[in-house]
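From the methods appendix. Each design record in this collection lists the tokenized structure first, followed by the designed amino acid sequence. Records were kept in a plain field format so they could be parsed without special tools. The example shown here is representative of the layout used throughout.

RECORD:
FOLD TOKENS (126 positions):
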């Protein structure tokens, strides 16, 4: 898949999952790859982004994860896309603006869409 295809795919995923993004009480992000991702307003607010678009434009999707927990989050993503395994973790995050640290529960769920696999990620209080 080329860049244009990925951009269309994440837009289609966001449209399909709009009710989840808009109505969930959890911070939610949908992740295809580092460049192609979308989050809800709750996620942006919790992590200190001005808007969901600000987070989506970042090339460093783990910027809000504590350095010592980043490899654990990557392993959960790989388990999702390689083994179709849902994982729930306790992760140390921080607000990118205030740098305030906090712990939350992250659930990584593998989902297929138009022949591609992405993850739906739900974050709530640990």
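DESIGN:
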């Amino acid at each position: 898949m080329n860049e244009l295809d990925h951009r269309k795919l994440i837009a289609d995923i966001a449209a399909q999952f709009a009710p989840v993004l808009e109505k969930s009480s959890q911070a939610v992000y949908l992740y295809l790859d580092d460049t192609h991702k979308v989050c809800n307003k709750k996620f942006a607010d919790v992590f200190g982004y001005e808007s969901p678009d600000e987070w989506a434009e970042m090339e460093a999707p783990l910027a809000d994860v504590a350095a010592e927990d980043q490899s654990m989050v990557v392993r959960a993503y790989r388990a999702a896309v390689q083994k179709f395994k849902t994982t729930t973790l306790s992760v140390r995050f921080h607000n990118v603006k205030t740098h305030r640290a906090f712990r939350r529960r992250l659930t990584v769920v593998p989902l297929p869409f138009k022949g591609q696999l992405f993850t739906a990620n739900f974050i709530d209080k640990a």
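APPENDIX NOTE: The first strand starts at residue 27 and ends at 31.
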